[in-house]
Specification:
There is one protein chain. This protein has 307 residues and is α+β, with helices and mostly antiparallel strands. It folds into two domains: 2-118, no CATH class; 125-271, 3-Layer(aba) Sandwich (YojJ-like (1). The chain is built from twelve helices and seven strands. Strands 2-4-3-1-5-6-7 form a seven-stranded mixed beta sheet. α3 (56-75) crosses α4, α3 (56-75) packs across α6 and α8 (125-145) crosses α10. The longest helix has 45 residues, at 262-306. The radius of gyration is 29 Å and the shape is elongated.
Length: 307
């Protein structure tokens, strides 16, 4: 069966060469070929525009991925893999009839971010976190313009599940619109703090520990005391928007940086959430490598002394 599949692939390329030669010999056929290709491209663009904004987009990406894998397996002479995939595609009609929901789910998973992350094709930590920081900064700036009070806590290495448990679990994607909507006055979740953990809005309406009155200026209110309190008890960073002045502040390591603009907010968050972590990871890897080298040297010296 595999040999026949190899012959089919060889025949395909031979037929393609013959077809190209025919186009070169007959200009009319070449014009019709260009027209044919143009129509197909226009149809594909139209389908792409229709499907992109729908759930079928994930399904289409899964199908395209299968086609790419099939082509690559043929080019790289992975005949067993190519035979299995082409056989599945050949008898796919039967599978679609019998297992339509299951197949749809599999193809959607192939086109989703979960598979991309598995193969390392998804956005890396720094890129994704930077996008989230920009969203938080945009939301804070919008809230500040309207003098809407807000308190956003960004979890880092120390987990604050006890704080999360005091609020309403959300597990939502970070977006400026959602953040602004949550803190809009007279909405059910506007009191308390939002906690962002693992790149998602984990909970809202969370209660934070308050810092002592001696730690902050008297003119600052409960939100600022809560922000300083959580930054003292953990390594979390808190972004505060004052309801009275519309100014943005950042609490980290028990200190408050008051009246920061959107660009400054982005820089501080990127420095403390992304840059430090990346540098710490690099230093940790270097220290581990250094330790391994020292262990090897010590073992070598020990063996030499024993001899």
């Amino acid at each position: 069966m595999i040999e026949s599949n190899i012959n089919i692939n060889n025949n395909f390329w031979i037929n393609m060469e013959n077809y190209i030669q025919t186009l070169q010999d007959n200009p009319f056929n070449l014009i019709m070929f260009i027209l044919d290709i143009s129509i197909v491209i226009l149809v594909l663009i139209k389908v792409f525009k229709i499907v992109k904004e729908s759930r079928a987009w994930q399904l289409l990406k899964g199908i395209l991925l299968l086609i790419v894998i099939t082509a690559l397996s043929s080019i790289c002479h992975l005949y067993i893999l190519n035979y299995i995939i082409t056989s599945l595609m050949t008898y796919g009609v039967v599978f679609v009839v019998l297992f339509q929901p299951e197949l749809r789910r599999v193809l959607e998973q192939l086109g989703s971010n979960k598979i991309a992350r598995f193969f390392g094709l998804d956005k890396d930590f720094a890129t994704k976190t930077k996008e989230d920081i920009y969203k938080v900064a945009i939301a804070a700036s919008e809230l500040a313009k309207d003098k809407i009070g807000a308190l956003i806590v960004i979890e880092r290495d120390i987990k604050i599940k006890d704080i999360i448990s005091t609020g309403i679990i959300m597990d939502a994607e970070i977006s400026p619109q959602l953040l602004v909507n949550i803190f809009t006055p007279k909405t059910p979740l506007h009191d308390g703090a939002i906690v962002i953990s693992g790149g998602r809005i984990t909970a809202s309406a969370c209660m934070l520990p308050l810092a002592n009155d001696n730690d902050i200026a008297r003119e600052l209110g409960t939100r600022h005391r809560a922000a300083i309190g959580i930054s003292k008890e953990s390594d979390a960073i808190a972004v505060v928007v004052s309801e009275e002045t519309g100014k943005i502040s950042i609490a980290k390591d028990g200190t408050l940086i008051a009246d920061v603009k959107e660009d400054t907010l982005k820089k501080i968050l990127i420095k403390n959430i992304i840059t430090k972590r990346v540098n710490e990871t690099r230093v940790g890897k270097k220290e581990k490598l250094k330790k391994v080298k020292e262990d090897i040297k010590n073992k070598f010296r020990k063996n030499t002394d024993e001899k």
